[in-house]
Design goal:
The chain contains ten helices and seven strands. The protein is of the alpha/beta class. The protein is 37% helix and 21% strand. Helix 4 links the parallel strand 2 and strand 3. Helix 6 packs across helix 10 (214-231). The protein has helices at residues 8-11, 15-26, 48-54, 67-75, 109-119, 137-146, 165-173, 195-201, 206-211, 214-231, and strands at 36-40, 59-64, 81-82, 94-100, 125-131, 178-190, 240-252. The protein has a seven-stranded mixed β-sheet. Bound molecules: S-adenosylmethionine. Residues 6, 22, 41-43, 47, 64-66, 69, 84-86, 100-102, 105-106, 203 line the site of S-adenosylmethionine.
Length: 254
């Protein structure tokens, strides 16, 4: 398995857009007074704080495999711990688990989910959101460029393993939980000269950045930029539409 490095500041540069699915996900979690709330893959911790604000009496656990993200979360006063989610299991008082934009980086999550949900107590909630944009131009163009002779075989993009909404519905229903699954395409309106390149620099391009020396990475970005501009043209007012589909799945145990 490859380990992707993270740049918390770069990731946070589209904070408002990226936070929206988190709010939409958590809105479907009906827990009233959970004992323990787990933010599985907490990133820089800015959203973990919102979980603590919604459930002030709960113990909030924040986990992430990235040392950089854990450090950023701790700077915000979140007692985040560095842990790969594959090594995590719910405790007997884990009443809420939120995993926002994380499990697509974990190819084994489809095997882990039923195990995690089976280990939750009664009346617990497991809520996940994963991007479903791997066939969108933002990602297809990275793969297309990586297939050129100059770049071929140099980068393992990792991740990108998600089910269709129906797949998550069936997987979670198999645990006996009540299930709520949906997909949404957000129509993000971005500004700036290369907004889609900037957006993916904080996420999808991280494995490319990790695999290539700095000069090569700059060259790769320079080759990618005009392709992205053609796929996501500037509007007359300078803004750019960036459609982004995401899948949401919530399980409520009985
Ligand atoms: C796109 S960020 C999402 C962060 C946060 N949940 C949010 O919504 O802003 C993805 C996060 O997943 C973390 N991550 C990826 N694979 C992981 C793993 N196997 N175990 C724990 N965290 C992981 C990354 O370190 C990164 O912080």
């Amino acid at each position: 398995m490859i380990t992707t490095s993270w740049d918390p500041a770069l990731y946070l540069s589209f904070d408002d857009h990226r936070a929206r699915p988190f709010h939409d996900l958590v809105a479907r979690v009906g827990a009233r007074s959970p004992r323990q709330v787990v933010d599985l893959g907490c990133g820089p911790g800015h959203l973990t704080g919102l979980l603590a604000a919604r459930w002030p009496a709960a113990t909030v656990i924040a986990l992430d495999s990235s040392a950089e993200m854990v450090a950023a979360a701790r700077k915000r006063g979140i007692e985040a711990q560095q842990l790969d989610v594959v090594n995590w299991s719910p405790g007997p008082d884990t009443d809420v688990v939120i995993s926002n934009a994380v499990l697509h980086w974990v190819p084994t999550h489809v095997r882990l989910l039923p195990r995690w949900i089976a280990a939750l107590p009664a009346d617990a909630w497991f809520a996940l959101q994963v991007p479903d944009n791997f066939d969108a131009p933002s990602h297809a163009l990275i793969r297309e460029l990586l297939d050129q002779p100059r770049w071929r075989g140099r980068v393992d993009l990792g991740g990108g393993t998600v089910l269709e909404p129906g797949g998550y519905a069936e997987l979670l229903a198999g645990t006996g939980a009540e299930v709520d699954v949906w997909a949404t395409t957000y129509q993000h309106r971005l500004t700036g000269p290369e907004p889609v390149l900037e957006w993916i620099s904080g996420t999808a391009l991280r494995p490319v950045r990790d695999a290539l020396p700095a000069d090569d990475y700059a060259e790769f970005r320079a080759e990618l930029a005009p392709r992205l501009r053609a796929a996501y043209p500037h509007r007359p007012d300078g803004s750019t539409w960036f459609p982004f589909r995401r899948i949401f799945a919530v399980a409520h145990t009985s």
